[in-house]
Write a structure and sequence with these properties.
The protein is an alpha+beta fold. The protein has one domain (3-381): Cathepsin B, Chain A (Alpha-Beta Complex). 32% of the residues lie in helices and 21% in strands. Strands 3, 4, 7, 8, 9, 10, 11, 12, 13, 14, 15 and 16 form a 12-stranded mixed sheet that branches. A hairpin with a 4-residue loop joins strand 11 and strand 12 (271-272). Helix 2 (76-93) runs parallel beside helix 4 (137-151) and helix 4 (137-151) runs antiparallel to helix 5 (162-174).
C-alpha cells in the first residue's frame, strides 16, 4: 500500500519525534493529505465507557503540542475517578432520578479539571496490579448498587459515612491517587500540575446543531450522558462544519461526539461515510461495496439532522479526536479521526477517515478552542 502521510507523534517521556504513516489509499480510495496537527499515541479504552476522557485528554495533549510545549501523557482514570465522585453526589441529591453510568460529556472533563486538577499517567494509572487497560463493568455495577442503597435511606436519613464507603469501593478498583507526586524532579499536586500546563479551560467552547432550540444561544443538550446538565452553544450545521474546517486549517484540533452505530462507520475498515442510499434500501452488492471505493454521499439538511435526533436514530455514542483532514480523488473531504479503541486496522494505526457528509449528518457536538471559531460566528454567539 502506498504511503504518504507522516504523522508526527511525540514519544511520551522521551521528548523525541517518531514517524507514523497513515495510508494514502484504502482499496480504491485515494487520499491526499491537506492538514495534520500533532498528536500523542493512540490509546485503548478497552472495556470501559470512558471515551469522553480519552478524547478530551488526547485533545489537551495536542493543545500542548500546538502551544509549543512538551506533551504529557495525562491520566484518564484520575479524571474518571473524580467524575464518579461528582456523579454519585448528583445522583443522591436527585434521589436516584439522574443518569449514572460510565459515559459523560467533554465539558465534564473541563469541570472536573477545574475542581480536581490533572495528573500524569506516570503518577496514577488507575489500573489494578497486573492490568494495563480499563475494565469497568463490575466497577459500575458495584458503585451503582451503593448509591441505589443510599437513596433508599434505610435508616430514615443519610449517614455521614456513605461518601467514605463509596470512595473506598472506588479506590478498591482504581486505587487511591496520591495527594502529591513528582514530575521531572519537581513536586506537584493535581491542581498545581494542571496550572503548570498552562491550559486555560475557559478558552474551550462546546458546540452543537439542532433546531428544536434557538440558534446562537446556549442550552442543555438532552442526551443521557449529559448527567451534569452542561450547556452547548447551538449553531446551524453549516456553521458547525465551517468551525471544524476553520479549526483544522489553523492548526487546532477538535473533540468530536458522534453516533457510531451506523453500518457505514467501521473501525475495521478505517472509514466512515454517509451514502446517498440508506442502508436498509441498499442491495447486497452495495452494502459490500461502500468501503471499497468512493460512493455518492448524501448532504444532510438541518431538518434531516433534527429528525434523526428526535427519532433517536442519531444517538450520542462515542467521543473521538479530530486531528486533520484528507481529500479523496473526487475532492470529498475526510476528517482524520483519532480513536481510543487501540489499533483495529493495522495500517490505520487506530485512526479513521470520516467523510464530511458523515460528520455533517451524525455529529452530536464538538469542543474547540474559542479562537478556532470563525470571527463572524463568535460574534453571533457573544464569545
Amino acid at each position: 500500500m502506498k504511503k504518504l502521510l507522516t504523522l508526527l507523534v511525540f514519544c511520551i517521556g522521551l521528548g523525541t519525534l517518531s514517524a507514523q504513516d497513515l495510508p494514502t489509499s484504502l482499496n480504491d480510495y485515494q487520499f491526499t493529505l491537506k492538514k495534520m496537527a500533532g498528536a500523542t499515541p493512540v490509546e485503548n479504552q478497552n472495556k470501559s465507557g470512558t471515551c469522553w476522557v480519552y478524547s478530551a485528554n488526547s485533545f489537551f495533549e495536542s493543545e500542548l503540542i500546538r502551544m509549543g510545549k512538551t506533551p504529557v501523557n495525562l491520566s484518564e482514570m484520575y479524571t474518571v475517578r473524580a467524575g464518579y465522585l461528582e456523579r454519585a453526589e448528583n445522583y443522591v441529591r436527585r434521589q436516584g432520578a439522574a443518569a449514572f453510568g460510565q459515559g459523560a460529556e467533554t465539558h465534564d472533563v473541563l469541570n472536573i479539571t477545574r475542581k480536581y486538577g490533572l495528573m500524569p499517567y506516570s503518577a496514577y494509572s488507575g489500573f489494578p496490579a497486573g492490568q494495563e487497560k480499563p475494565v469497568h463493568g463490575e466497577l459500575e455495577a458495584v458503585l451503582k448498587a451503593i448509591v441505589d442503597a443510599v437513596v433508599k435511606m434505610p435508616d430514615g436519613k443519610l449517614s455521614n459515612q456513605w461518601k467514605k464507603a463509596y470512595a473506598g469501593a472506588l479506590d478498591g478498583y482504581l486505587g487511591a491517587p496520591p495527594a502529591k507526586f513528582m514530575v521531572d524532579g519537581k513536586e506537584y499536586t493535581p491542581q498545581s500540575f494542571s496550572q503548570n500546563l498552562g491550559i486555560n479551560l475557559d478558552n474551550y467552547v462546546p458546540l452543537t446543531s439542532y433546531n428544536h432550540q434557538p440558534f446562537y444561544k446556549p442550552f442543555v443538550l438532552e442526551v443521557s450522558d449529559n448527567w451534569s446538565n452542561g450547556i452547548f452553544y447551538n449553531v446551524p450545521i453549516d456553521e458547525l462544519v465551517q468551525t471544524a474546517d476553520n479549526a483544522l486549517e489553523n492548526g487546532y484540533t477538535i473533540v468530536w461526539a458522534t453516533d457510531v452505530s451506523e453500518k457505514t462507520f467501521s473501525a475495521k475498515e478505517g472509514l466512515a461515510v454517509w451514502p446517498q442510499t440508506a442502508w436498509e434500501d441498499m442491495k447486497d452488492d452495495e452494502k459490500a461495496a461502500w468501503f471499497k471505493a468512493p460512493v455518492k454521499e448524501k448532504w444532510v439538511t438541518q431538518e434531516e439532522r433534527q429528525v434523526g435526533f428526535d427519532q433517536l436514530t442519531t444517538t450520542d455514542d462515542h467521543g473521538m479526536h479530530i486531528t486533520g483532514y484528507v481529500t479523496d480523488q473526487g475532492g470529498t473531504k475526510y476528517y482524520i479521526v483519532k480513536n481510543s479503541w487501540g489499533v483495529v486496522k493495522p495500517e490505520m494505526a487506530g485512526y479513521l477517515y470520516v467523510s464530511q457528509p458523515y460528520f455533517r449528518s451524525k455529529t452530536m457536538s464538538i469542543l474547540v478552542h474559542k479562537d478556532a471559531i470563525p470571527a463572524a460566528i463568535r460574534k453571533k454567539l457573544g464569545l
